[in-house]
């Protein structure tokens, strides 16, 4: 048994803007259960007028295999490894950092970062899980554009998903295949997502107010696929409501939801690739109550509404968590009130506040 690290006190008054920003992050994953290889090409640009002595990148439980800057292997005096960081010494004003690391999804019992459970590769990066995938500025005020290539055996992982829009796919070797995803919208690292495995899919489509066609898909373990129709209908209602009430239209070509039994959160709003626990997604008339149906609708809508209140407009630091969550909760409450009984919804919200939040605050 290993001891957990001692929590460190973080003060809002200590906030400092990062010395560097990240323009683009190109990631390649070779998905092997106990030895996944992650290649990263990350473009950094200094934001300060004066040079900095060192740049500290977050990283946990990573095995560094290769490191280079602008194509040149880095000598030992130009970087150092710390228990939870990679420190670059006297980095240039602009540079591309190339790293290759090895991680162990099958042995990741924290279920933070990239992990393997029940044969499915899955990620959870909020709040600080991305540092368990590769070395990075793992903080919400660093937004980057991501391009991701996933490689895996076809038999074990016929489905390969990440954020953004699908760009290309194909086969190589005897039994491997790949898929490339590109997210055109800058996002913080906590919204990165990856899912790979043998999943069934329910597909549909949605035409936005401006006439754009969006492909909708819900992926889940094959035995559960017949319980996803209500979630899909709820998603389409949420998209229409957000357009009509707030003038907010979806901004990618695809919207994917993945529902897996072993996801460690209720749901997560990763850009274009929401990941849910099956308990927050599945509903069927012969096995679910009215409350179950309303709850699935609410959670589906909540994560969709995060596309603007949380994803496109995000947090500067984690002290602002209540802003993105509070505003999105308000939006999902209004959505439910508009589609059902406003009075019943208000009474339920107040009861929950009194029974849960007031007790916690006391």
How would you describe the overall organization of this protein?
- The protein has 362 residues and is α+β, with helices and mostly antiparallel strands.
- The chain folds into 2 domains: 19-197, Sandwich (Immunoglobulin-like); 200-350, Neutral Protease Domain 2 (Neutral Protease, domain 2), CATH 1.10.390.10.
- Helix content is 20%, strand content 37%.
- It has helices at 229-246, 290-305, 321-339, 342-361; strands at 20-30, 36-46, 54-58, 63-69, 72-73, 79-82, 85-89, 94-103, 113-117, 120-124, 144-153, 159-162, 165-172, 176-187, 194-197, 200-207, 213-220, 254-260, 267-268, 273-277.
Summed up:
The chain is α+β, with helices and mostly antiparallel strands and 362 residues long.
Question: What tags apply to this protein structure?
Answer:
single chain, 362 residues, alpha+beta, Immunoglobulin-like, Neutral Protease, domain 2, 2 domains, eight-stranded mixed β-sheet, five-stranded mixed β-sheet, 4 helices, globular
């Amino acid at each position: 048994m290993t001891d957990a690290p001692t929590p460190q006190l973080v003060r809002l008054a200590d906030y400092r803007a990062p010395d560097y920003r990240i323009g683009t992050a190109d990631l390649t994953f070779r998905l092997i259960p106990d030895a996944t290889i992650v290649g990263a090409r990350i473009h950094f640009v200094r934001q300060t007028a004066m040079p900095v002595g060192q740049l500290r990148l977050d990283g946990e439980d990573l095995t560094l295999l290769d490191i280079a800057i602008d194509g040149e292997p880095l000598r030992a005096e130009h970087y150092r490894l710390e228990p939870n960081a990679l420190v670059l010494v006297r980095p240039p004003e602009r540079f591309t950092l190339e790293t290759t690391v090895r991680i162990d999804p099958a042995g990741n019992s924290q279920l933070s970062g990239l992990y393997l459970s029940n044969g499915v590769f899955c990620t959870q990066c909020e709040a600080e899980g991305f540092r368990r995938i590769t070395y990075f500025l793992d903080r919400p005020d660093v937004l980057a554009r991501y391009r991701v290539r996933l490689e895996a055996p076809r038999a074990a992982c016929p489905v390969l998903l990440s954020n953004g829009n699908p760009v290309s796919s194909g086969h190589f070797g005897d039994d491997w295949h790949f898929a490339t995803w590109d997210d055109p919208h800058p996002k913080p690292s906590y919204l990165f997502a990856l899912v790979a495995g043998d999943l069934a899919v329910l597909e549909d489509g949605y035409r936005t107010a401006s006439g754009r066609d969006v492909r909708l898909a819900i992926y889940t373990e094959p035995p559960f696929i017949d319980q996803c129709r209500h979630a899909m209908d709820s998603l389409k209602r949420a998209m229409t409501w957000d357009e009509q009430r707030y003038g907010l239209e979806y901004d990618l070509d695809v919207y994917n939801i993945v529902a897996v039994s072993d996801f460690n959160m209720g749901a997560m709003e990763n850009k274009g690739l929401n990941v849910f626990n099956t308990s927050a997604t599945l509903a069927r008339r012969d096995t679910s109550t009215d409350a179950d149906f309303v709850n699935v609708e609410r959670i589906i809508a909540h994560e969709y509404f995060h596309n603007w209140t949380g994803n496109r407009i995000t947090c500067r630091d984690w002290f602002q968590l209540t802003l993105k969550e509070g505003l999105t909760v308000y939006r999902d409450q209004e959505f439910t009130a508009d589609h059902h009984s406003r009075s019943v919804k208000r009474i339920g919200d107040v009861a929950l506040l009194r029974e849960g939040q007031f007790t916690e605050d006391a």
